[in-house]
Amino acid sequence: NAGVTQTPKFRVLKTGQSMTLLCAQDMNHEYMYWYRQDPGMGLRLIHYSVGEGTTAKGEVPDGYNVSRLKKQNFLLGLESAAPSQTSVYFCASSFRTGGWETQYFGPGTRLLVL
Amino acid sequence: GENVEQHPSTLSVQEGDSAVIKCTYSDSASNYFPWYKQELGKGPQLIIDIRSNVGEKKDQRIAVTLNKTAKHFSLHITETQPEDSAVYFCAAGETGRRALTFGSGTRLQVQP
Lengths: 114, 112
Description:
The complex is a heterodimer.
Chain A: E1 4-7, E2 10-13, E3 19-25, E4 31-37, E5 43-51, E6 54-57, E7 65-67, E8 73-78, E9 87-94, E10 104-105, E11 109-113
Parallel strand pairs in A: 2-11
Antiparallel strand pairs in A: 1-3, 3-8, 4-5, 4-9, 5-6, 7-8, 9-10, 9-11
Chain B: E1 4-7, E2 10-14, E3 19-25, E4 32-38, E5 45-51, E6 56-59, E7 62-67, E8 72-77, E9 86-92, E10 101-102, E11 106-111
């Protein structure tokens, strides 16, 4: 049981390049989330998904797209990277219940956009 | 939307002392308040949470208190140990909103 895994761990991009971050979970969780973490700003929600084939915008969705084609995977795409997207990206997942459940986080992907 | 403020941003204590981190929230509809611990190079991990129907919750050396009237909640760590050194995040959520709003984090350093 690996929990939540993220690929890659670190990446350097040039402005305008594109890339996809992969998140995978093996806990059969319904809900998955993408956050970015910047110094002094905590964790900010980019997009989230409440089930396979569904996605929704979070607090800071501009410049990002997501897809949830399989229940266990949640992909975050940057179509044209900008220096402002330099950050650490975390994926999380949780069970779906009537109330709140623990969010389990992956180890993060550090992205540097030059 | 919800806004969560967290203080202090850094906190240094001696081993064995207590540490207190405070958060305030703006949306009175929020009813779930988790605390996450993030160790260096890792993702955040839930350490304790509280729902709005209780005022205090304790788990060994960790406790959380909630004041709904004042819209603030606090994390208390007693008998701190060097392994408590990490960044701590508070968050607030509302049933149905499906998204947590996080505070900006507190870097706790426990000096041996």
